[in-house]
Design brief:
This protein has 206 residues and is mostly helical. It has one domain: DhaL domain (Serine Threonine Protein Phosphatase 5, Tetratricopeptide repeat), CATH 1.25.40.340. It is built from ten helices and no strands. The two termini are 16 Å apart. 45% of the residues are buried.
Length: 206
């Protein structure tokens, strides 16, 4: 768990300016700093989180995000992590459980944000990632190609956010002017998915 926390916090910290720039184009311009604040707080709690079972750590991390991050990203990412933690509690953390955890997390985002894929949000990345992970697990794909499959789905989802018309959040106020821009939440979701994949890839080769 410590490696995952380090990777997620590190990638957000390294891409603050990217996230800020994307959000300045179609939002409030605070997505980068908000995400940095939230994941820095998670990083500060890394020792405590690493001592917990993964589902409990996810639940705690979600609570940290909700309490530390302003705007929409705190409640949405917090809902994702908390729902995943609740879903995995008391269960064997095999591949099927991880799929169910992510499915419950995505459902929580949809409920919290009153949104669906196609509305230029973080769901543009997370919905195809869930589909790719679910398909790979169902077909017993080996870890390395499974991670590649998930990464490709995340990248494709991010790029698919560019031509969409935003209908949620501050970006929706721009109307047609939101078209042609990557969604900041989709970008941060892609970064986090990629970071998680890197950790599992490195673990498999050690």
């Amino acid at each position: 768990m410590a490696h995952l926390i380090e990777a997620m916090a590190g990638t957000i910290d390294a891409h603050v300016e990217l996230l800020t720039g994307l959000d300045q184009a179609i939002g409030d311009g605070d997505h980068g700093l908000n995400m940095k604040r939230g994941f820095a707080a998670i990083h500060e709690a890394a020792e405590e989180l690493a001592a917990l079972a993964p589902p409990e750590a996810l639940l705690k991390a979600g609570l940290i995000l909700v309490s530390k991050v302003g705007g929409a990203s705190g409640p949405l990412y917090g809902s994702l992590f908390m729902a995943m933690g609740k879903s995995g509690a008391g269960r064997t953390l095999d591949r099927a459980t991880v799929v169910n955890m992510l499915a419950d997390g995505v459902a929580a985002i949809k409920k919290r944000g009153k949104s669906e894929a196609g509305e230029k949000t973080m769901l543009e990345v997370l919905v195809p990632v869930l589909a790719a992970l679910s398909d790979g697990v169902a077909n017993d794909v080996r870890l390395a190609p499974l991670l590649d499959q998930v990464r490709q789905a995340a990248r494709g989802g991010l790029e698919a956010s560019r031509p969409l018309l935003a209908t949620k959040g501050r970006a929706s106020f721009l109307g047609d002017r939101s078209i042609g821009h990557l969604d900041p939440g989709a970008q941060s979701s892609y970064l986090l998915v990629d970071a998680v994949c890197n950790v599992f890839e490195e673990g498999a080769t050690q």
